[in-house]
Amino acid sequence: MEFMKEALDLAKEALQANEVPVGCVFVKGGIKVAKSRNKVNETRNPTRHAEINCIDEVLSYCQRHNFDQINFFKDIVVYVTVEPCIMCAAALKKLYIKEVFFGCPNDRFGGSTVLDVNKIYTEGFKLTGNILPIEAMELLKQFYKGTNPHAPESKVKKKSNMSIDKN
């Protein structure tokens, strides 16, 4: 619960920064090795999800300490406030992450709910959901009440109100 609560605190930071409120903590052997939140709007990079940011932190850590990156990831447990999206679930699977705990499901883009990325070709990481789901969902509701000031302008064409005179 401790690491999920920390992930929720990171999600709150994301909400305050006008980001989709997702926080993530990577743990190895009971020790936190990475933590992050969504930074998509902040960086103007659509791939800067909390999980990807944590992966980058671990890769940098491994490079600095000359650790074998592949073996390092095999014992990592991920705590994330929202079910990883398809992109993040695929990245976690590719790195042989041991286990993922998430707060609330991601019914639109979930890497288990929408497309079970974790089970494609080979068995993947252990996945457990609904860890403090009400808290995680409440943050998402707060975010989606507002508008995203960094969202691209809609490309949907609007109907013209111009009338044609038939005389």
Automatic annotation (TrEMBL):
Top-level taxon of the source organism: Eukaryota
A GO molecular function held by the record: tRNA-specific adenosine-34 deaminase activity
Entry keyword set: Hydrolase
Keyword check for Nucleotidyltransferase: no
One GO BP annotation of this record: tRNA wobble adenosine to inosine editing
GO CC list: cytoplasm; nucleus
Keyword Repeat appears in the UniProt entry: no
Occurrences of domain CMP/dCMP-type deaminase (ranges): 1-114
Annotated TM spans: none
Protein's name in the database: CMP/dCMP-type deaminase domain-containing protein
Species of origin: Pieris macdunnoughi
Higher taxonomy: Eukaryota, Metazoa, Ecdysozoa, Arthropoda, Hexapoda
